[in-house]
Specification:
The protein is mostly helical. The protein folds into three domains: about 1-70, no CATH class; about 75-155, no CATH class; about 180-350, no CATH class. It has 18 helices and no strands. Helix 13 packs across helix 14, helix 14 (about 260-285) packs across helix 16 (about 310-325) and helix 14 packs across helix 17. It starts with a helix and ends in a 5-residue tail after the last helix.
Length: about 350
C-alpha cells in the first residue's frame, strides 16, 4: 500500500500508474529509492534497497499521519488508536507464544509461572475470546467495511482494550463495574439466606453479623473473614452447593454470562476464581509493592474493586489485604474468595476518603 501510494503521490513518480507498477516494478522502485537496479544485483544491494524502501515508506506514512492529524483530527485519533491496538495485540501474541514455548520446554503448569506471565496468559485469553466474533464477521467479502462501522459505533461491545483510547478505557471500566456493582446487594442478601442453613451456631452468628455490617455500609476486616473461612468449604456455602440464583449473580460479578446451565456456571466460577487464587500466590512471592500503578489498578479491578479513581497507595493497601486473605485459604475455601469480591469491595469507597 505504501509503495502504491508512493507511485501516485511522490514527486517524480506522477506518471507511474498502478498497472505500470505491476508490470515494471523495477522502474518504480528505482525511481522511489534513487538506486538503479540491474537484473542481477547482489544480496548486499538487495538489502540496501529494502532498507531504502522501508525508510521512504516510513517518511511517507509519517507525512500521511501529519495530514490526517491536521485536517481530520477526530479521524486521526481513531486511526492512530486502531493501528496502535494492532501493534499491542501483536506484541502480546509474541509474548504469549514465548510463554507457551517456555511452559512446553520446561514442563511448567500455569500456576507455576511468575505473576506477570500468569496475568498475561489470563488477560490474552479473555481478549482473544472477545475478538473472535469480530474476526469471523469480517471474513465474508466486503463484510470488513460493515465491521469497521460497527466497531466505530460500538467500541465497548466489539473491541478490546488495545483499541480503546485512554478516555474510553476509563469510561468503559466505569460502565462495566457499575453493571456488576448493581448485583452486589443481591449477592450479600443471598449469602445471608444461605448462612441461615449453616449448622455451626457460633460461626453462623459471626458470618451473619459480618453480612449485616456490610449491608449497613461497614467495610469488613480481613480477620473477620479468616474466622469464618471453614464454612465455605462445606454445605451450603461450598462452590458445589451454591444455589442457581447466587450462581448467576456471582457470574455477573466475574463478568461471565449467567445464561448457562447452573452446573456449567459453577464449573466456570470454580475455574476463574482458582485462577485468581493462583495469581494471588504468585503475587505474594513477587510482592504487591513491586507492581506498577497500572498493574495495581488492574489487579484490584479484576478482584471486584472499582479502582478507576483510586490512587496507587489506596490500590496497594486494598490489594495487600486481599493477598493476606487469599494466601491463607485452602483450595476448598475458594467460595469465600469469590464472595470476598463483593464483601471487600461494596463499602471500600465509603471507608476511605477517595482522592481522584
Amino acid at each position: 500500500m505504501a509503495l502504491t501510494r508512493s507511485c501516485f503521490k511522490f514527486q517524480g513518480l506522477r506518471e507511474c500508474h498502478f498497472s505500470e507498477f505491476l508490470r515494471y516494478p523495477t522502474v518504480c522502485v528505482s525511481q522511489l529509492t534513487g538506486h538503479p537496479l540491474s537484473p542481477f544485483f547482489t544480496t548486499a544491494k538487495r538489502s540496501t534497497l529494502s532498507s531504502a524502501i522501508i525508510s521512504k515508506a516510513k517518511r511517507l506514512n509519517a507525512k500521511y499521519e501529519q495530514f490526517l492529524e491536521k485536517n481530520f483530527p477526530r479521524f486521526y485519533v481513531i486511526y492512530s488508536t486502531f493501528f496502535r491496538g494492532f501493534r499491542l495485540l501483536y506484541l502480546d501474541f509474541k509474548e504469549v507464544s514465548g510463554i507457551k514455548h517456555k511452559m512446553a520446554d520446561q514442563g511448567l503448569k500455569y500456576y507455576q509461572l511468575p505473576y506477570r506471565e500468569m496475568e498475561k496468559l489470563r488477560q490474552f485469553r479473555r481478549d482473544v475470546i472477545k475478538v473472535i466474533p469480530v474476526v469471523l464477521l469480517s471474513l465474508p467479502p466486503f463484510a470488513n467495511y460493515m465491521v469497521f462501522i460497527l466497531m466505530y459505533f460500538f467500541p465497548r461491545q466489539l473491541l478490546i482494550r488495545h483499541f480503546w483510547t485512554h478516555e474510553q478505557q476509563q469510561e468503559f471500566m466505569e460502565i462495566y463495574h457499575s453493571m456488576r456493582a448493581r448485583v452486589y446487594p443481591n449477592a450479600v442478601r443471598n449469602l445471608t439466606k444461605a448462612v441461615s442453613r449453616v449448622p455451626d451456631r457460633r460461626l453462623k452468628s459471626q458470618l451473619l453479623q459480618l453480612c449485616s455490617k456490610v449491608q449497613e455500609g461497614i467495610h469488613p476486616k480481613i480477620s473477620q473473614l479468616h474466622v469464618v473461612a471453614k464454612l465455605f468449604s462445606r454445605h451450603p456455602l461450598e462452590m458445589r452447593y451454591i444455589d442457581a440464583r447466587q450462581t448467576k449473580i456471582l457470574s455477573q460479578v466475574m463478568f461471565l454470562t449467567p445464561h448457562v446451565p447452573t452446573f456449567v456456571a459453577r464449573h466456570r466460577l470454580q475455574g476463574h476464581i482458582m485462577e485468581i487464587h493462583h495469581l494471588d500466590q504468585a503475587l505474594n512471592v513477587l510482592g504487591v509493592h513491586n507492581l506498577s500503578d497500572d498493574e495495581l489498578r488492574s489487579a484490584c479491578y479484576v478482584r471486584g474493586l472499582n479502582s478507576v479513581h483510586l490512587n496507587a497507595t489506596q490500590c496497594e493497601e486494598w490489594l495487600t489485604k486481599w493477598v493476606q486473605l487469599s494466601k491463607k485459604l485452602e483450595d476448598s475455601e475458594a467460595s469465600l474468595l469469590l464472595h470476598s469480591m463483593v464483601l471487600l469491595s461494596t463499602n471500600y469507597h465509603n471507608s476511605r476518603k477517595i482522592k481522584p
